[in-house]
Specification:
Number of strands: 25
Mean pLDDT: 86
Strand content: over 45%
Shape: globular
Helix content: under 10%
Order of helices and strands: EEEEEEEEEEEEEEHEEEEEEEEEEE
Low-confidence stretches: 309-313
Strand order of the largest sheet: 4-5-6-7
Amino acid sequence: MPVEQGVVLVWTSANGEQVEVMDLSDTPGQQVVGASFDGRYLAFSVYENEELFSSPWTGFIWDSVERGEATQIAASPREDYPDGAPGALPLMYPLMNDGIAYWVESDPTEEERDFRALKSYDVGTGQTETLARGPFDKPRLFGDSLLVGSWPSEGRAQVIQVPIGANVPDLPAELLASEGLSEFVASGESLAWVTSRSTVFLYDPDRGAVETITGPGTAMAGQVWEVGTLTLNGDVLTLYGQDSEHEFRQYVYDSRSGSFTSPAPLGSSDFHAHPGHLALHHADAQDERLEGRAVVLPMDEVPPLPGCEKSID
């Protein structure tokens, strides 16, 4: 929640109760960048200033049951980096799951300057572990496994799977074999990914097939380029892309009806798909009471999108 001089992080319960988690208003410029909630624990990252790509960050966990002060679990490494190493990158987007926080932080060496470490922090034991190293981005939850994108400075981008439990679903062969991978997202055991920055694929395990959402052979062929920033909840996929007028827009695809639409102009009100829910964020609302807030609905209360457009089989 923005205030005149800074930011106050507020958690809202399922029944609408609001609890202040952390007050950053005494230090203008501090930003909360990433946050993840597993039903009890909230993991989040705080950046010291608005220059995010060079700002030091600190990671925290807050217990919504005990409701005490947030516990620091991590901080961006402060040591000197080898020449050409990425320093404070990547941005710290934690993933909270079953009392364990996961994130990726910079971990370069002279020989591996683009390498990063996939880390975990267990609330129950207070222990931090390094699970893997590589040129990774943020973790995504896929069944009982973590998926991270591996983006080497040379060679093919790919998805790396790290088991964290017994239910480890198989990745679809189409994703493993994809060329030109530029973005992907997971939700439950559903996946979506982008190749060549313009073709979007959706995998639904209940259907057992990969569907092409944009690109050749679809109703959106030739309409969307430079696709990025996907969100997915199994039923709804949102994406940002450049349209035929070279303007960036958000598109919403509903797999239940095979329909898609493009809502209000980018930046005014944006949809975000979360597991089991769909959120509408009001960034620049006409009603001042809505500005900066979000409306969240369970997916069982969201009817399928009407047939605005439909992908061509």
